[in-house]
Amino acid sequence: MTSNAWDLAALPLFTGVAAADIIEIARLATVIDYPTGSTIFAENEPGDALYAVLRGRVEMRCRDRRGHEQTLATLEPGAILGEIALLTDEPRATTAVTVAETTVLRLTNETFMALLKQGDRAGHQILYNLARGVAYRLGEVTQRLMRLLADQSLVKVAPPEDELDELKRKLFTEWKF
Amino acid sequence: MSGFEATTHYFRQAARVMELSDRVQLLLINPDKEIKVEVAIELDSGQLGIFQGYRIQHNAARGPLKGGLRYHPSVDEDDVKSLAALMTWKTAVVDLPYGGAKGGIACDPASMSPGELERLTRKFIRQIHTDLGPTRDIPAPDVNTDAQVMAWVMSEYSQLHGFAPAVVTGKPLELHGSQGREAATGLGLVFVIEEVLKDLGRPVAGTTFAIQGFGNVGSHTARLLHERGAKVLAVSDVSVGVFNPDGLDIPRLLEYVRGRRLLKDYPGEERRISNEELLTMPCDVLIPAALGGVFTADLAREVRAPVIVEGANGPTPPEADAIFNQRGLLVVPDILANAGGVTVSYFEWVQNLQHFRWELDQVSGQLDRIMRQSYRTVQGLAKSRQVSLRTAAFIVAIGRVGRAVIHLGL
Questions:
Q1: CATH architecture, domain B31-164
Q2: Hey, are the CB atoms on A159 and B19 less than 8 Å from each other?
Q3: Cα of A72 to nearest chain B Cα, Å
Q4: How far is B299 from chain A (nearest CA, A)?
Q5: Which letter does DSSP use for residue B251 in this model?
């Protein structure tokens, strides 16, 4: 099934790309409908394509050190997924699961790289859009990391008043020597 | 288990007995300030040498910070942090008006010339001098640093701030050092041993000892015990142990090692034993005075001495400590037993502030009083609360630091 060029034009990934180029890309991309609870791709699989959410919702999940599955993010229409594997050649770091009836656009790595290699303006624009998306995500991850560090940091925290009174009682009476 | 984890383990053990909240424990366990610098010097070869230097200031509630400065390739942040905390508890157990700190440079002094070591020391002090001072933070000798290194510390600091001998202790006797500093840890250990034996109703004379380590602490301890009529059955260094069931000729051994020679080449007829055999031999008092972490769990089950006095820092990991306690052995913990060194450091600082020199008997007399009083306080608490001497020592220390924190206000 080929995609509708209008769906593509609405994606941030294709912002600033000329309509003629979008129509060409639409011809190369496929659109896939998933029912709720489908796995689009799974952790450790080789990454062979990049996806964009056209409709619905997708959760990105990852197993922590103890093997518990954690949800890292919920993607709304317009979001890109699977681009990291495209850029790094590493296996998928996360699992993408639909949590609503979802339609995604699928662009294989080969197609994508061929687009970039044409070296025209569209290729540069798409690459710029992709980099921007990754940069925003990195910003979010950094902020989240800072919050986590702040929570865990062994910063000296003044105990609340009753805790201090309790400490005083302990040190000056019970444990006075 | 790393040093920091072991110190933290013993701290938590005591804090649990006191039922302190998690946040209060955090308040007391984390360092006030961590200083980390890159020390760059020109090596003799003309090459650039860059070394990592640390000074961790753990808790200044009870007074200026005090703690050694060590030069060793294995020096890292975690290690120094643990040792800084240990200094807070140690100075508190013997009630010196100090907080705890520790510093060090990751370097291999054995492969460095005196000139390189001097440049390294002076550069390090120039980098951290604003955090040092006679009323701020007072370093002392530690692993691979001696009176000469302390003299450089004093010299460099004094060039920046004016004459200030009290900025560092463990200086040469001719340069504002103190009488009795050399033998201080061993003498303190012996005062504590005398108190322990008094409780057990026996004199030092005739009591049998095994001492692991024949360096500064081990050799002075052996000498002082021998002078008091004790029978030192075995001593060891890194190479081997020597053993005589009737007691070793300690003066002869001391004379021999004065030439910086190893015991394996000692010409006497004494039987040679391994360090492991020494730690598990039958005797009245066992003194580990070499490295940290010497008691593995297996060894701890085999120890036959009913009394262990920790001359070294951290010879007993938590697992071995639990075995000793369960077997009912009496362990006098490092933070109490080997506090004689820092106590005489304190006397040196006092003399420097007074610009007045004490005679040896004043040093020994004051050390005698402080060590015996400290042991009495810890022993009394251990008895009344039914806890080990180690837990009691930490409780005494935590109590003193905690009360100072409260009086100061947060």
A1: 3-Layer(aba) Sandwich (3.40)
A2: no
A3: 30
A4: 35
A5: H
